[in-house]
Write a structure and sequence with these properties.
By secondary structure, the protein is mainly β. It has 1 helix and 3 strands. 6% of the residues lie in helices and 23% in strands. The chain has a 3-stranded antiparallel β-sheet, with no helix packed on it. The chain starts with 26 loop residues before the first strand and ends in a 7-residue tail after the last helix.
């Protein structure tokens, strides 16, 4: 991965290495929290190449809780007659 900043996480044993082919759109999250995805992009010279590029993290939608209206929370429904 070529970047313009020093990235210490690239020195770890589980970091992706240059010259090895990975599955397209494979994701890697480094120790510091940066997200990378392996896909075709443009290098600094303007040529297309397969490489790891920084990407936005994938947001996992949280499960929605059962919504109760304000009226139901303030005035409880009657039970039986």
């Amino acid at each position: 991965m070529l970047t313009n900043k020093v990235h210490v996480c690239l020195e770890l044993p589980n970091a992706p290495t240059q010259g090895v082919e990975y599955e397209i759109n494979a994701r890697w999250v480094c120790e510091c929290g940066d997200n990378y995805v392996y896909h075709e992009g443009f290098n600094r010279a303007g040529y297309k190449e397969m490489n790891w590029y920084q990407a936005a993290p994938i947001e996992i939608p949280q499960q929605r809780k059962a919504h109760r209206s304000l009226k139901d929370r303030l005035i409880h429904p009657r039970k039986g007659e």
